[in-house]
Amino acid sequence: MRPTSIDFSNKVHRLYSTKTAPPPPPPPPSEPSDKNAKGKLILNRISRFFTFSLSSVLVLGAFGVSLLVIYLILSELFLPSGDTKTFNKAVKLLEQNELAQKALDFKSGERVKAYGEVPGDRWVRNRPVQSVRSKGKDGNDRLYMKFHVETDSGKHGSVTLEQVDTSFWSSEFSYIALDIPRQRRIYIIEPKYQGLLHNEHGNNGFLGLKWGPKKDN
Question: Composition bias, kind Pro residues: at what positions (predicted)?
Fold first, then answer.
């Protein structure tokens, strides 16, 4: 009979590895249950939605204001009905008119000084040109404007005009008149209708409006 051998090394290894193995990690602590967690989540989403909506409205509003400002600047400078372009065109026509050259004593090719109503302080540089817009019976927009001209010879005159917008991109002058103290009115462009001559020398002001700075009584 063959004797059997017993392998003690395996048992010793198992006993050794079992006793020296690190204990398993403790389970993570359970978070305390919040009864209002769902309500807080909904409130947080609503708050974020209103914040995003308010930011979007502010951005769109600023964008709209920017577009409006750009449109006003471009229409003032480039559209035929813009005050600046109308003013420059009227001054150029006056400088080319022979009757105006003789009355204001300036030569052809010379420039005249053109400006709006003189305020109380004559040294103020900002002299805006006065203009009024209205819609005529024919449905067309009309621009009425008044400004002053002065030459190097010291002669002074006031210019009144009416411009009619025939379309969005085109306009034409109904008349341009030059008034010089103690002289007869000169028309740079003759009026098409005699009705435009009303209130020429009246006391109610040009086109029924009080032009110029307010005078103290």
Answer: 21-31
